[in-house]
């Protein structure tokens, strides 16, 4: 690639949510029968998972367009298609 930018460019959604909130959304949208099991964080586990996407906006003109709850079913459908697993409808 050519250009003046160096280093990583974070791509992600800057909206913050906990791993439990993510698990609960996946459970609600994909399989309400799933049991969520929690374990203690490891010492090196980041407390905050919020990408800074300023560089992506400035250098690439990119910003997220799909919200978490919209993206989970899309991701499920994509994984099923790639793995050849029929849908649950």
From TrEMBL:
| Keyword Calcium found | no
Write out the entry's keywords from A to Z. Answer: Decarboxylase, Lyase, NAD
Residue ranges annotated as transmembrane are none
Q: Which GO terms describe its cellular component?
A: cytoplasm
Q: What is the official name of this protein in its record?
A: UDP-glucuronic acid decarboxylase 5
Q: What InterPro entries does its record include?
A: NAD(P)-bd_dom_sf, UXS-like
Q: Which cofactor does it need?
A: NAD(+)
Q: Which GO terms describe its biological process?
A: D-xylose metabolic process
Protein's UniProt keywords contain Disulfide bond: no
Listed GO MF terms: NAD+ binding; UDP-glucuronate decarboxylase activity
